[in-house]
């Protein structure tokens, strides 16, 4: 169950969260920001830059098993062009997680050199995980914790109760992630978060959401989507998305009494299949913001 479904962000809560994250940031050298590789823009927190200031950061593009491979590569190149280190990972299978220590080392290079110059031989680097709900923070921490024995420590200067996991030699991770909020003020961001299931369906109109998703899918035309719903012979560009929802519902035999199509059921089915990547490995947001 994602935290998005239980946490209702409100100003007081956000202030408290910011305070907690600032306190945790004092204990770490670097930050690993987890985002959803399918929606790299919408799954980021708008205030993170201001919160972490100049602290070195690695972006973990999680759920890369569900994102388009080419798109993920384009994103990583896009970040690299900005001098930002990003790594595509999949916390379900553990793919690429072994590259995390090297990525942290890359962003910490200058700081490590300074530490060494001050006489610290093999400084231990500490990182914390941050991200909006549902991006896979717990999955990441659980994976790393499973691979690496948990280490409980009460060090001087370290708040009691903080646990650190040893990830590799001289690299430790704080056990508690910083849970941040997504943008609230942008309709498209909300829509994209809802596509992936990060926002609960009770707060959105599922049929409207499915229609918006179909608008996107009919222009992108992913092969798996076309074959799954046998849309090969359709002129998708000239089909209204609501009509497409009806066609899909009909093809799946989703009828209500009187022969009408149950578009609500069709919408729920479509969203479920999209979220499970059954319609293909689809990235909704591309660098440069093609989708508005
Ligand atoms: P959070 O702490 O940031 O809120 O996220 P969490 O780890 O709880 O992950 C949210 C959902 O995303 C979970 O699914 C989790 O299994 C899934 N997930 C995390 N990382 C990946 C990934 O790399 N690939 C895929 N495909 N899924 C990922 P859930 O449906 O809430 O739970 P469950 O299916 O694990 O029972």
The helical percent reads 40-55%
**End-to-end separation:** 29 Å
Write down the secondary-structure element order. Answer: HEHEHEHEHEEEEHHHHEEH
Total DSSP helices: 10
> What ligand molecules are bound, each kind once?
guanosine-5',3'-tetraphosphate
Biggest beta-sheet profile? 8 strands, mixed
Task: Kindly provide the radius of gyration, computed on alpha-carbon positions and rounded to a whole number of angstroms.
Answer: 22 Å
CA-based shape: elongated
Strand content: 5-15%
Count of strand segments: 10
* Mean pLDDT over the residues: 90
Contiguous uncertain segments of 5+ residues = 1-6
What structural category do the secondary elements indicate? Answer: alpha/beta
